[in-house]
Amino acid sequence: MPSPGPGVVGRLDRVRRVLWLVLAANLLVVAVKLFVGLRAGSLAVLGDAAHSGVDALNNVVGLLAVNVAAEPPDEEHPYGHGKYETLAALAVVSFLSIAGFELVAGAVGRLLGSASPPQVDSLTFVLLGGTMLVNTLVATAEARAASRLRSPVLSADARHTAADVLVTISVIGGLGLVVLGWDDADAWLAIVVAALIAKSGYEILRGTIPVLVDSRAIEASRIRNFIGPVPGVLKVTDVKSRGSLDAEAFTELTVIVEGGITVERGHEIADAVERKLLDEGFTGVVVHVEPPAGGIDPEEFSQTGPAPR
Fold first, then answer.
1. What does CATH list as the number for 220-306?
2. What are the strands of the beta sheet with 284-290, ordered from one edge?
3. E strand spans, the chain
4. For residue 201, what are the contacts with CB-CB under 8 A and spacing of at least 6?
5. Residue 292 and residue 200: Cα distance in Å, rounded?
6. In the chain, domain spans
7. Please, are residues 63 and 19 in contact by the beta-carbon 8 Å criterion?
């Protein structure tokens, strides 16, 4: 069975540490926004707090998923548990959907009703500006960590946190309109916030669904190009891949070699192909070695040795 590449468990440990730090920052931001929203009676600010709350909940789900993803391959999960990390990113979408729906429902109710406009003062703007600064720093640091650690959970959460910055900017602008006399600005802005939440959910879906349905990790032609310089390889056929090079990717392929070589030489070529693909970012590689069509009976090789007949 394919085994995870070197450093996979260490990578997940580092992802876990980042998630704990981000969770602490998100809880602080949520507390401040709830205080501001309740104090001012602003639906848009409370929606912004819900958006940040989903960030914190996503961190908790991500921590649970990373703990599972760090488990080594076993009989029931021969390819490891990496998809649990991707599932955590997908779970964020359901939380975003609930927050967006509640926000739109509250905004429509306020527009059709006769609720009082929010009460805004200078402290409101100062506190919201502070949360925006914290989110900007968190999103930047988390995006860098996601790229360095190749983590879909951190990448999804960084995009969500970046969207939170945009939400807070729009909320501050909307409260400015309330100060200028447009009482319904808060409700209309809450609908805009819901649209931004929906956009965040769509971007996460676009990145996670292909991994969960086993779409190819990269084009077969690119894999062939990776292997092309390996000595002894005449042709590459039957190329399959799944997963994502940003997290865990697996590939299986057949290399055609000269028909008269020894079994030992065939293993050497298979090992060279495997090392090349692992260096390119794949987590697990299975290589089959065959002579040209019409030659001797094919002998298959994988990274664990000749396949049983």
1. 3.30.70.1350
2. 235-243, 249-256, 284-290
3. 235-243, 249-256, 284-290, 301-302, 305-306
4. 92, 93, 96, 97, 100
5. 50
6. 8-210, 220-306
7. yes
Q: Is 278 helix (H, G, I), strand (E, B) or coil?
A: helix
Residue listed under structure tokens 């809880």: 27
> Which structure tokens are listed for 165?
């910055």
Element (H, E) at 39: helix 8-40
CA separation for the pair 203, 210 (Å, rounded): 12
pLDDT tens, N- to C-terminus, the chain (309 residues) = 444 444 555 666 787 788 888 889 989 999 999 898 888 887 778 877 877 877 787 777 777 766 765 566 667 766 666 666 667 667 777 777 777 777 787 778 777 776 666 777 888 889 988 998 998 998 888 888 887 877 777 777 787 788 778 778 878 887 888 778 777 777 787 788 778 778 777 877 777 776 666 666 788 888 888 887 888 888 888 888 887 766 677 888 898 888 888 888 888 988 899 888 888 878 788 898 888 875 444 444 344 343 333
Sequence-distant (6+) residues with CB within 8 A of 20 are 59, 63
Strands 301-302 and 249-256 turn out to be unpaired
Count of CA atoms in the C-beta half-sphere (13 A) of 183 = 8
Return the half-sphere exposure (C-beta side, CA atoms, 13 A cut-off) of residue 29: 34
d(CA 202, CA 109): 26
Of 1.20.1510.10, 1.10.260.40, 3.40.440.10, 1.10.3720.10, the CATH number of 8-210 is 1.20.1510.10
| Strand, coil or helix: 4 | coil
Token pair recorded at residue 192: 């805009």
Cα distances (angstroms) measured from residue 160 to each of 125, 194, 217? 22, 13, 24
Do 220-306 and 8-210 have the same topology in CATH? Answer: no
